[in-house]
Design goal:
The protein is of the alpha+beta class. It is 25% helix and 33% strand.
Length: 125
């Protein structure tokens, strides 16, 4: 389950950024994850909940995951196209596609509460 490793790194990065911003609580973490990472969304949520359940900064926070579909550019004709993990040949000419999207793992934003907040979450990211 490599999702646990992914989420461990995400939580460490989020914790560090939240602490640096002076946050007292994290409300939401938004991730973009490429389908080619083979991460399973449900497993990411499970790992996030398990890791954050005893963390006072992150306990009860929401994980929002956006899955990015694979996209390639044909090395023969230059056509850009989306595809699944297995069918990467160019639909225009049958040439080989070079992956340009679908391997991402990015923290897009973090919504936190800081001591000077008026009770509304703010976004860091």
């Amino acid at each position: 389950m490599h999702e646990l490793g992914i989420i461990t790194g995400v939580v460490e990065s989020v914790s560090a950024a939240a602490k640096q911003a002076g946050a007292t609580r994290v409300y939401k973490v938004s991730l973009s994850v490429g389908a080619m990472t083979e991460a399973i969304e449900d497993a990411l949520h499970f790992a996030f909940d398990a890791i954050t359940e005893d963390d006072p900064l992150l306990k009860g926070s929401e994980l929002d995951v956006h899955i990015i579909q694979p996209k390639s550019r044909c090395t023969v004709c230059g056509h850009e196209y989306e595809h699944d993990r297995f069918q990467q040949a160019c639909p225009e000419c049958g040439g080989f596609g070079r992956l340009i999207a679908g391997r991402e793992l990015r923290i897009d934003s973090i919504e936190v509460e800081t001591p000077d907040d008026d009770g509304k979450p703010s976004s860091e990211g």
